[in-house]
Design goal:
Blueprint lengths: L1 H16 L5 H20 L16 H5 L3 H15 L4 H7 L9 H12 L8 H17 L12 H11 L7 E3 L6 H11 L8 H9 L2 E4 L3 H13 L11 E2 L12 E6 L8 E5 L5 E5 L14 H12 E12 L1 H4 L3 H12 E8 L12 E8 L10 E6 L19 H7 L20 E5 H5 L14 H4 L7 H29 L1
Length: 494
């Protein structure tokens, strides 16, 4: 049923593409209309909830109109709701009608009207919306993929972190809410916990807190959570549309799960006196940061450390440069090793993210009270990259592919781990390094690898041609990005 409904909902997009409506625009309009339809269903028996939607804009007023009248009414509704507070205002912030053909708008309204969405059940509604988000992410031209972390990876991270009932979970760059939903699934899984009434209430209203800087993405996230029964129409939305890095908001959390946006620098573009575009690096001057830098990922790592309670835990997806970059990078790594227990690094394979050329890792660290001695004693590294190849279409990352890492991580008791690497087994992917070894390395680099790349030594073991082609493209693109950065620096010094 879910697949057919996803297919039905999504089929309209192909109709709209001829009118220049993108996947993202379509998903946005669906979000508005779905929200209004569900609000209408909640206002009727057996729910009878008081819904803060003016009578003149209720669902029946939308269904009863067609043609130019429907379009005018819809545009007026979007403008009105965008100025409201609470969940309503956040969903409709800066909302616009992107469907210029009133007949097609009417067809979408009819399709949504035919289903009783509240009765569908959380799993079905959630699966439909997640299916749409994934399809949107696959549309690489729109750039939506940058907000989408592979679901298999998210699930694996959550399995390792094992969130607990009545503990808070934050994501300072929450995208469409993937980490929140995986944590929600873990907490509601009867094999993990049998939640009582108070724990369920806490889960619905108090567990999650997110920030997302892009208005459209924040909107999709809110809707995603709402469809999964997280938060409701009447309470403050669990996601803020804001730049999380600007300041320490004073909130502290038990757990942070996040994949901050890739891209080395934060910058803003403005027009100079000659009418040319100039960019200026954004530097966050914060007292709680160990280093002042325009490197966005390093700033996120520092911010996440600030967000944690004294015994809080974090899991963060970071690009390679966070592990080896000098200057501010070295300062941040040293401080992280000293003040937290940075116990695990997962080296991720290429070809799993929608943004090409990305080489990333997951770092796991537990916060600790202040101490004279470094809190990290040893760092365990799992090399899931060397001689492993994935692609987004033919050979996608699956949860089964990452199960060996979860077993090695040993979530039940991570202090009882066993290396798979040894002198006798140099191909082992799981290996530990002492704190002393790491601080003795150049720039305290955590970019550690030991496996031989077979494609360099064994011509009979080359990856598939399409994998090789993708890797060549990724390397060229990464090189071009570096050259662009050099040119920008040179232009600034002129």
């Amino acid at each position: 049923m879910t697949d057919s409904l996803v297919s039905k909902v999504w089929s309209f997009c192909n109709v709209l593409k001829d009118d220049g409506v993108s996947y993202g625009d379509y998903l946005e309009q669906l979000t508005y209309l779905l929200f209004l339809k569900m609000a209408d269903e909640y206002s009727k028996p057996p729910h009878n909830r008081k819904i803060d939607i003016p009578k003149e804009y209720r669902w029946e007023t939308i269904v009863s109109k067609r043609g130019a009248e429907l379009e005018t009414h819809y545009v007026s509704l979007l403008r009105e709701f965008g100025q409201k507070g609470g969940m309503l205002g956040k969903i409709f912030f800066k909302s616009q009608n992107k469907i210029s053909d009133p007949a097609k708008l009417f067809r979408i309204v009819q399709m949504i009207d035919q289903e009783s969405w509240v009765k569908l059940g959380t799993d079905v509604k959630g699966d439909i919306y997640e299916g749409l988000l994934e399809k949107n992410a696959e549309d690489t031209k729109s750039g939506a993929g940058q907000y989408f972390t592979p679901r298999a990876l998210i699930k694996a991270i959550v399995e390792c972190m094992r969130p607990e009932p009545e503990k808070t979970i934050a994501d300072p760059a929450c995208g469409t809410g993937g980490f929140f939903l995986a944590a929600y699934d873990f907490l509601t899984n009867k094999n993990n916990y049998q939640l009582n009434k108070d724990e369920l209430q806490f889960l619905k209203y108090k567990t999650f807190k997110g920030w997302e800087i892009v208005p459209n993405t924040a909107r999709l996230c809110l809707m995603n959570l709402f469809l999964h029964n997280i938060g409701d129409l009447d309470n403050l939305a669990p996601v803020e549309r804001a730049d999380a890095l600007i300041a320490d908001n004073g909130l502290r959390f038990d757990c942070v799960l996040t994949n901050p946006p890739f891209g080395k620098k934060s910058s803003m573009t403005f027009t100079n006196e000659e009418g040319e575009d100039e960019s200026e690096d954004l530097i966050y001057n914060r007292q709680d940061f160990w280093a002042t830098t325009s490197n966005k990922q390093l700033n996120f790592v520092q911010h996440i450390h600030t967000m944690l309670k004294v015994d809080g835990k974090a899991s963060v997806v970071v690009p390679d440069n966070v592990l080896f970059e000098g200057g501010a990078g070295e300062t941040v790594r040293k401080k992280l090793l000293e003040t937290t227990d940075l116990h695990t690094i997962l080296r991720l394979p290429t070809g799993i993210f929608y943004k090409p050329g990305v080489k990333a890792n997951v770092i796991f660290f537990d916060n600790r009270p202040a101490s004279k001695n470094a809190q990290t004693k040893e760092v365990w590294i799992y090399d899931f990259r060397t001689n492993i190849h994935f692609t987004l279409k033919k050979n996608t990352l699956k949860y089964e592919d990452i199960k060996e890492f979860i077993e090695s991580y040993n979530p039940a008791n991570r202090h009882k781990r066993k290396e798979t690497w040894s002198e006798k087994n140099p191909e082992g992917r799981w290996r530990k390094f002492t704190y002393d070894h790491i601080v003795s390395r150049d720039k305290t680099s955590l970019d550690i690898f030991w496996l031989k790349d077979k494609s360099l030594t064994d011509l009979d073991n080359l990856p598939d041609p399409d994998v090789l082609a993708i890797e060549i493209i990724e390397n060229i693109e990464a090189g071009l990005e570096s050259f662009k950065g050099i040119i920008e620096k040179l232009n600034k010094t002129k």
